[in-house]
From TrEMBL, chains A, B:
Biological process terms in GO annotation: isopentenyl diphosphate biosynthetic process, mevalonate pathway; sterol biosynthetic process
Family of this protein: Belongs to the diphosphomevalonate decarboxylase family.
Pfam families, alphabetized: MDD_C (PF18376), MVD-like_N (PF22700)
SUPFAM superfamilies: GHMP Kinase, C-terminal domain, Ribosomal protein S5 domain 2-like
Keywords: ATP-binding, Lipid biosynthesis, Lipid metabolism, Lyase, Nucleotide-binding, Peroxisome, Steroid biosynthesis, Steroid metabolism, Sterol biosynthesis, Sterol metabolism
GO molecular function terms listed in the Swiss-Prot or TrEMBL record: ATP binding; diphosphomevalonate decarboxylase activity
GO cellular component, as recorded: cytosol; peroxisome
Upper taxonomic lineage: Eukaryota, Viridiplantae, Streptophyta, Embryophyta, Tracheophyta
Transmembrane segments: none
Residues of the Diphosphomevalonate decarboxylase-like N-terminal domain: 15-188
Record-given protein name: Diphosphomevalonate decarboxylase
Subcellular location: Peroxisome
Role description: Performs the first committed step in the biosynthesis of isoprene-containing compounds such as sterols and terpenoids.
Primary location recorded for the protein, binned into one broad class: other
Length: 419, 419
């Protein structure tokens, strides 16, 4: 360490992901090992991602972290596990231009600063911890010149948050539960990249909720301890579904993909309900969105849209193509219009171009939308104004990337503190 | 048949029942044979019952039935099954005073009139078909002098509506699923009569709902065909629970009774959710009632109240004794006050004497109720005005009875038509 004034920084961006075969239940709480395999779709980081800057400097007195500008504690076991695992694999680096050399031994004593930012509301229940831990591990590994493949990094991210391991890849990703006691083989693998099935369009309905939700950590612990259906699901149901889902994705077979996605989401919530005390993540609005999609799919004769819900009331809706997505958004805006003082620009975010396909330019167009044809037997088709906070239009996306443009760093290159 | 002008009538009253180990899924659709045993509590007919008058006369041209004053068709298979099974077991009767004699042969040609009345709203989802078919079979059997024991009658009522077989007894009743192909051993048996555990108090919250509900007949068919959890529940989970529940009832062990009742209700709804398309019977209000009970039970250290939900959003709450019931009603009225124009007299029905224990005489007392102590961490404890339509206070009750007082008959003794 030639000079004592330098700061070395790395910035990365990591996507979030949505499971289509769900992870629910750990067989090892500390290592975060799952009771079954799971499969996810990585979401386009342009609309939903975490950006993390990690920095190292001999000037830093301790490891520190800021999330969305606010300092948070790193003392939790999950952060500590990720930091320890990455540090233990750090390699020597040398930057002759800047006159920096860090040996493997040096890394044990050097402290890091971490700044992380989600481009979506953290509290909205959109798997922010998955993207967050994936980005932490990915950026630290780059900074510390860790010589491990992406699979090994996924096993480290897994120890921060189970589903984080799936955010190490783009496209369609499987988290293999593995067999080893130390979790060495409990890693994520990419099934297909994001270009494989790029017609898919994803609309997320962020559902308003006044209920305080059960955290997924304590929820799945309760399920493992009390649900009499969970083990049957993990041992008998999911293994078959994993094989079928891999086939469906490989063949771009939307019918099977939708059938499996919806069934597995519903079964995960069934296991939550079978827990003592029961866990309710979906609310009446979630139920109405499901009913709307089921009715439409039935009226079309073949599935147009798949739905899946994580540990919260938000619906993630996967449309088979862009045309279907426009029809879906039209239905969603019809049934779930915003409160009258809402700006359309903040009610539909992400890839707003779909609004053009719907023929909606402003709020008055939303109010003028006709009822969907399959709603004809409901007189009048009930509108639920304000039940949805906003919609995010997105698609399957790529995995983690390094941001080489220093202006995108979240830490000041002089002070190592948040900008 | 000496004179051709006579009418012979019988009137009976039959209770409804609420399952504490649920029946969900048939192994034979036509005979209504269940995939698992179930256990129920019979509800006091004073508050929830069906009254049925059946009449026979050579003057009647066809079998006819009136439900709550409105004529309904008897052509459905379920009515036809019950009528056929009872008729085939009819015995000779002779009333020398009235000069009436009906031979076994005569019964084949004679027609019946049936008038049935529920002392509770039919559409409220309170198992009206259970009480209805039980009463139909019980009263017809009496009228036709059927020489069968109550178990055999329960097997006939079962062919009208599965859960109807359990309404042939008071107290605590088991529907044994049986093994025989013809359903001859699929009958109800009384586990304990209503005096065995008479401290229990039951409060039913009739929950407001705008959703059209899936009928239990089509719902359970869909579950049998599509749920991957249902068979596991029926084969592995319920048999053990049946044994434990029988023990709990025998020993008046409220802790086990409550634990099993709540877990089995939640598992039944979990199977509904695991169905394709998923079935949602509980709504946000149902969930809030569960959360309220779970929180209170936890704060007391041992269960005070058990909850169970049938194929609808209504909560059936079983309190361990009257004092607990008063505390429960106080909580319910606090969290779920009526709209301001509601009369207290129509908001709490059934055994209103519990209102006195709560110290509530009029609506202003409801508004003045203090928040429950366990709600202290919610500021303010959220009230859901109008989410409950009304409460029914009741208790475990007796089985079917004959009403000998002719003034209680629902058919005119001269015309054989509804009064």
């Amino acid at each position: 360490m030639a000079s004592q004034k330098w700061i070395l920084m790395t910035t990365a961006q990591t996507p979030t992901n949505i499971a289509v075969i769900k992870y629910w239940g750990k067989r090892d709480e500390a290592l975060i090992l799952a009771v079954n395999d799971s499969i996810s779709v990585t979401l386009d980081p342009q609309h939903l991602c975490t950006t993390t800057t990690v920095a190292v400097s001999p000037m830093f007195q301790s490891d520190r972290m800021w999330l969305n500008g606010k300092e948070i504690s790193l003392s939790g076991g999950r952060y500590q596990n990720c930091l320890r695992e990455i540090r233990s694999r750090a390699s020597e680096i040398e930057d002759e231009k800047k006159g920096i050399k860090i040996t493997k031994k040096d890394w044990e004593k050097l402290h890091v600063h971490i700044a992380s930012y989600n481009n979506f509301p953290t509290a909205a229940g959109l798997a922010s911890s998955a993207a967050g831990f994936a980005c932490l591990v990915f950026s630290l590994a780059k900074l510390m010149n860790v010589q491990e493949d992406q699979g090994k990094l996924s096993a480290i991210a897994r120890q921060g948050s189970g589903s984080a391991c799936r955010s190490l890849y783009g496209g369609f990703v499987k988290w293999v539960m593995g067999n080893e006691k130390n979790g060495g083989d409990s890693i994520a693998v990419q099934l297909q990249d994001e270009k494989h099935w790029d017609e898919l369009v994803i609309i997320i309905a962020v559902v308003s909720s006044r209920q305080k939700e059960t955290s997924s950590t304590s929820g799945m612990r309760d399920s493992v301890e009390t649900s009499l259906l969970l083990q049957h699901r993990a041992k008998e149901v999911v293994p078959k579904r994993i094989i079928e889902m891999e086939e469906a994705i490989k063949n771009r077979d939307f019918l099977s993909f939708a059938r499996l996605t919806c069934a597995d989401s519903n079964q995960f919530h069934a296991v939550c309900l079978d827990t003592s005390p029961p866990i309710f993540y979906m609310n009446d609005t979630s139920h109405r969105i499901i009913s709307c999609v089921e009715k439409w799919n039935r009226s079309e004769g073949t599935p147009q849209v798949a739905y899946t819900f994580d540990a919260g009331p938000n619906a993630v809706l996967i449309a088979r193509d862009r045309k279907v997505a426009a029809n879906l958004l039209q239905r969603l805006l019809y049934y779930f219009p915003p409160h009258s003082d809402t700006d359309l620009n903040s009610y539909v975010i992400g890839d707003k171009s779909i609004l053009g396909d719907v023929g909606v330019d402003e709020m008055r167009d939303v109010e003028a939308l006709p009822p969907p044809p399959e709603a004809k037997d409901q007189i009048p088709a009930q509108k639920q104004r304000g039940a949805v906070s906003y919609f995010i239009c997105t698609r399957p996306g790529k995995g983690p990337v390094l941001l080489s443009d220093e202006s995108q760093a979240l830490l000041n290159p002089e002070s190592g503190l948040p900008k």
